[in-house]
Every structure is written in C-alpha cells, then in structure tokens.
Amino acid sequence: MSTRSRWATCLFLFFFVSLSIIVLYPLVGLLLASFKPATELLRNGLSLKLQTELFTLNNYSYLFSDAGRKYFFWYRNSLVITSLFTLLSLLLSAMVGYGLAIYQFKGKNILFVLVLVVMMIPVEIIILPLYKLTISLQLINNYWGVILPFVVAPLPIFFFRQFASSLPKDYLDAGRVDGCTELGIFFRLMMPLMLPAFGAMAILQALHSWNNFLWPLIVLRTDDMLTLPIGLASMITPYGNNYDMLLSGAVLSIVPIVVLFAAFQRFFISGLTAGGVKG
Amino acid sequence: MRVVSTAVPHRKITHTLRSLLYSQRFAPFLFVWPFIVTFLLFFAYPAVNTVVMSFQLVLPGDVRFIGFENYHKLWNAQFRQALIVSTKYTFWTLLVLIPVPLVLAVFLNSKLVLARNFFRSVLFVPALTSVVVAGVIFRLIFGEVEGSVMNTIVGWFGIPAQKWLFHSETGMLVLVLLASWRWMGINIVYFLSALQNIPKELYESAEIDGAGVFDKFWKITLPLLKPITIYVLTISIYGGFAMFTESYVFWTNNSPGDIGLTIVGYLYKQGFEFFELGYGSAIGITLLALILAINIVQLKFFGLFRKES
C-alpha cells in the first residue's frame, strides 16, 4: 500500500466514524431519554449532559403497569398486521412478478405499464375514495382494512419480475416433463431460486408495514385497535407529551424491526443487486 | 344408472380443472389475478371516484355536481401556504438526498474504506425507525429550552437558543434534517446496488489510458448511474410532495401560522376533520397534476424520452 492511499484510508476512516456518531446519536439520545424522568424532560428537554444521577426505570415500569396495558394491544396489532401483510404481499407480488416475467400472453405489456402507473401515483391522492370504499366493504377498524388495499404492491412486483426474468428457463421444461403443474413449478422449483429476492423484499415490506402511518391512522378507529406508530403518536398532545409512555414505548417498538434487519441484512444488498433495481 | 349420470360430468369437471392447471395458456392468469383484482378494486375504482368527487359537493345524503367550484376554492392563502411548504421541502430534500448519498455510496464502494459493510449498516439503521419515533427524538433534540441538545451545540458557536419548531425557517430545517437522517441510508443502498453492476473492466481500461480518480467518477460512474439517479429523483419528488407524517408528528396537525402545513396535510384536514370529501379530492387531483408535471419535465431534462435510452 502506498503512503498516499494509507493517508486516504485514515481520512476515510475518520470521516465515516464521525458520520456514524452523528447518525447514531438520535437513537442513543432516545435510549438515554427513555431512562430520564418524564417530568425532567417536560421541564428541561433532552440535554447533552448525561445526568446519570437522574436515571430511572420509571418509564419502563409505567409501560408494564395498568396504565400501559393498551401499549401491548398496539404491539400485538402491529405484529399481526405486519406479519400478515409481509407474508401475503411477498407471496402475491412474487406470483404476479413471476407471471409477468415467464409467460407470453395478451395484455402482458399493458399489465406491466399499470404496475408502473400504480408505482408512480401517490396513494395519498386516492385515500378519500379509498376510505369511502373501506367503509362500504365494512373493513373500517379491521386488520384487513389496513392490509388489503396495499398488499399487492407495485415495487415488489417490479422487483420480482426483474429477478424472475434472469432465472434459468430449463427448470420450466424439466418441471413440465416431470408432470408438474404450472403452479407446482412455481412453488417447488422457482420459489427456492428466488430466495435472495424474498429476503430483500421481506425487509422492505415489513419495514413499510411496521412504520406505516397515514392509512392505519384513517382505518383504525378505537384505542385497542391502533398500531404502534398511531398509538405512540396519540401520546403526543398539544397539552404536553406523555413522555413516560412515549419514550420507553418508542424504544421497545424498534426492537422487532432491528432483529429482523439483523437476521436478513446479508440478503438485503446482495438481493437488491442480483435483482438489478436499475430504475 | 343415476350413479353413472352424475359421475361422468363430475369426472369431466375435475378433468378440465386438472388440464387447466397444466395449461400454459391459462397459467398466466393463475399468477397475475391478484394484481388485476386489487388494481381494479383498490386503485382504478378509487382513482376514477376521486376525479368524479372533485367536481361534487359530497355531504351525507346530498351529493351533487358543482362543476369547478372545488377547484376555484383552492385559490386561498392556506392552500398557497401548503404548496409553498411542500415545494420548499421537496427542493431541500432533493438537494441533500441525491448528491450526498451518491458520493457516500461511491466511497462505500471503494476499497480504501475499511469496514465498508459495517458503515453501510450503520448508515441504514435510521431507516428502521418510524417517522413517529424519529419525530419524537428530533423534537427533544431540537427542544426550545436553553439546555436542549441543539441549543447547547449552537451555543458553542455563540448563537442564541432557538425556538426551532416555532419559526418557518428553522422548522423547515428540522424537517429536512429528519428526512436526510431517515432516507440517507436507503438512497445509499440504491446507489450501491447500481454501482455493483458497473463492470470493473471499464475502470481498468480507463486506468490504462491514464484516467485519474475524478476522470473515472465523471466519465464512467456518473453516466452509468444515470438510470438509478432518475429513479431516486422520481421517488424523492413523489415523497417530498406527499410528505405528511413528519409535520403531523412535529406539530400534531396544527402548526403555528401553518409553517408545517403540507398539501397532504391540507387534504387530510379537509377530508377527515371537516369531511369536505369533494374539496379534498380536488386537492388530491391538483397534487397529482403537480407531481406528474414535475416528473415529466425532469424526465425530459434527463432525455429519458429519447430513443437511445
């Protein structure tokens, strides 16, 4: 290694370490704040000083007291909605993407253009009629009302289509010769080959569902049906925030998604690259 | 006799069903039906409906066409404010969230950076938080009291304590910082995935021709990143103009002097607080026209409509 590149390496290391500290600070700050008394935060905000002498577990014990019971309803709702949404969305979007990539049929190009149209038009524009529709389908304040309208998602379809078009076609013929149905070929032969794509999309879709705000805010109406982001947001009021619930609740709400990311992250970049999201 | 007569059609039906499962002409439908069904029900129908509703007065039991009245109503100070806030926000987020992640991705793709994978993961971590969680912590960091994190930091430079979320400029600054923090990692991943698809031979042959680091960046990397840049630009324009949650979390849907009022915030307020569904739809259609117009100009500017690309 030349002296020049050694200097560059050190400079880069210093740069990225500093950047990482800045980027991680808000999360560290959240963790620190969750150990501070809510009254202190209301009065003096979050200070740069550590003030370890003030640290308390009160915010966490509040969550586990009677007053915090609804928090665990929100947690359950978020877990159920995110799992159902992610599983269904991966299965259905993979089927559609695969169908668009593998078969030649009339209207195939129109369908693909429609996928791109859905991708480009913000959902916010249709939420009012979608809300009316959800009322007439009697899906208001219901998990399915949150899940169904967006479960067949354009980005995963697009991605799975890119991925599936690079799959070896020999498997198709081999499967047909061996007497497999077309669905059987998909489930038994092709799906295992698409695992990296499933890994990447699982993170993306779970993340999207876990953190989704606007649509669940509209569909979910009663306190026990809210998801974590909506429930936590309801703790922010113009008359002062319920920091005792807000901060410990926020910390615990990040845990599942961090675990998921840690488990799948090695698929993440490799999966995205293999699929070639080239825009 | 009777047994046979019912058994035969039955066997016939199962036979046709079975052959359908094997038919390659029927197979595409087995796969694409979820999209067709959800597209028609949850996209096409509401989309048509929103256009129709934007020309209507929608009250319970009283729905009638009122022509362009909803669109005339849009000419007011509040909507103009929402337009300004959304446009400013989009402008600043684009200015930060395209070039910075692009350069960082190029760095993170270079062998000169140690522990590349570690830094990639660290920069992606903020994307795991919800806007609500991020908003809560940014509210605390940018608190208005003297001892808050940001006021302490600006204090070191002799700047007096700010009431960050009570003024239009500093409020916008905090919004843009929050967006940059949450989106940086995602955009880096997009650029990285494109960088890894650039063949190494291109750089090698450029080196043989005597090209330096900057030559390689301007003449190979940037042009080959064009498609992904257009993609990131398109979704960022969309995301910028559709922003709502960030300002909802900062100001609980009512900011002082509407400094945080966005177009979707205005739509939400009209639709779900005042139940003005017709007027809300007109706001939505205007937003759609705006995004489409900007994207068409952008795509034209980048020459995407030319045949060669």
From TrEMBL, chain A:
Transmembrane segments: 12-35, 79-103, 110-131, 143-164, 185-207, 245-264
Topology class, membrane: Multi-pass membrane protein
Pfam family, one: BPD_transp_1
Keyword Signal in annotation: no
SUPFAM superfamilies xrefs: MetI-like
GO cellular component, one term: plasma membrane
Family named by the database record: Belongs to the binding-protein-dependent transport system permease family.
Protein name from the UniProt record: Carbohydrate ABC transporter permease
